[in-house]
Amino acid sequence: MLSAGSKYEDSKNRFVFICGVVAGLVLFSLLRHISWWEVCLQILTILLAAFIGSMLASPETLSLIEDYDEPAELRSIYFTEWFNDQGYEIINEPYIKRATDLLVSIVGLLFMAPLYLICGLLIWLENPGPILFSKHSVGKGGQVFKEYKFRTMIIGSALGSIEGRIHDKRLLRIGVFLRKSHLDELPQLFNILKAEMSLVGPRPLRTIDEVEEGQIVEGFMQRHRVLPGIAGLAQINSGYHTDPKTRLKYDLEYITKRGSLLDFKILVLSIGGTLGQTPKSGYHKSSSLSKTKRDS
Fold it and tell me: Which end of the chain has the least Cβ crowding within 10 Å, N or C?
C-alpha cells in the first residue's frame, strides 16, 4: 500500500504535469496557420516538456530505472566460474546475425521513440517514479547483465513476491496491458544494442531462477554458449512458463540448428503468437510455473 506521503508526492507530480500541459496548450492556441504535422509535433513537444518538468519537480522520482540489485559484476564471478567449470565453450555469433541485431535495434529505437514516450508517460502518470525496471539476468558465458523492461508494478514491488503475471494487486493498470502485449520488453532493444542480447536465442533468466533451475537439470548452463534472445525456440514451442528440462531441450536444439532461416522463423512465429494472443505467447492462462519471487 502507498503511504500518505507517497500519495501526496504522486498528486503533486501529476498537478505539475497538468499545469505544464495546460500552459502549453494555451500557448499553442495562440498559433495560427500551421499544418497537421506541425500540430502533432507541437502537442508531442508540450507533453514531453510537461513530463520532464514534472519529473524534475520531485528529485525522489527522477531516476529512470528501478534497480535494487547489487552490482552485476559481483554476480558474474559466480556464474562465469560455474560455466567454465562445466568445460563449455562460447559460440561466437556470425557477423550477419550481429549486423542484423544492430540494425534492428537502432531502427527500432529511432522509429519507436514516440511509443517509448507514450508508455513511459502512462506508467509515470499512474505511479510517478522510474519508467524502466532492470533485473539481473545470466547471459553468454555466464556473464550477468541488467535486462531492461518497462516498469509494470508499483515502486518497491521488486522486493516482494508475486503470484502471477497479470493477477497481482500491485500491477499497474497500464502494466497489465504492457505484459499481455509484451510491450514491456521493448527496452531490451538497448540490451541488443549493447551486445548483451540478440533478437533470437535462449530466453534469459534472472540469477535467482538460473540457480534454481540449474540445480534441477544437469547441464543447464549449456544454454549460455550463445547470446540470450528476446524470442526463443522454447518460447514458441512450449510457452513462456515451461519447466527447466523442456526449456533446456529446445534451447540446445536451437544452438545445434541455429541459422538465419531458423531465426527468421522463430521471429515470425513469436510475433504472430503475440498478436494472435495464443496461449503460448505468455500470459493468457494461469500456471504454477508463473509464480515468481520478483517482477519478471
Answer: N
